[in-house]
């Protein structure tokens, strides 16, 4: 089987059967043993296909190991899950780079394992890395779009859609990852408010780029209130106020 055929076969196994093995593995714990067995069967076939290929792309190896990691998390076999997620990170780094958003999912799921095992320092380091990767990606797009004022009125009287550069699945993943990290950071807001505010500002950028002004404003306001409560620097508070002003200006702009 050629590399192209192996890759196509593998993706078909993940995407066609039941709508992808990753969601199947992630939901397996809730869905019951039958779903775990089914997901394991699909992934075993995918693994066999990948191992037979001598030229399988790094990205395909990464996807396989991430799905296997999620499967073993569902089975509560955290040692195997850690092994596969480490491989996911390695292959994703080879394919995309260590600081790429497509690599961040491996870090995130590994952080969740450490958090569940109460290895909080390791989890914190990985959650920080994931937050920084997404913040860098979104900040780069946010700066370009906000400075160029891309959100303008077209000839039909509608705003141009602002592109996050992500497809629908990636946007959903970004929301899930960043919201999960924010929920974890909230428990330490009194001792490490800057980490919470960092994630809140990243969520602001995500929703701003998704044209969801109400959610963007919600997260900016949460960040501003926390900065005031924790008596953070005036500079920090002013930075967040600028985000709120940006949303207000967008909402005030007439659509004709």
Automatic annotation (TrEMBL):
SUPFAM superfamilies noted in UniProt: TPR-like
InterPro entries in the record: TPR-like_helical_dom_sf, Zinc_finger_MYND_domain
Domain of life: Eukaryota
Name of the protein in its database record: Zinc finger MYND domain-containing protein 12 isoform X3
Lineage: Eukaryota, Metazoa, Chordata, Craniata, Vertebrata
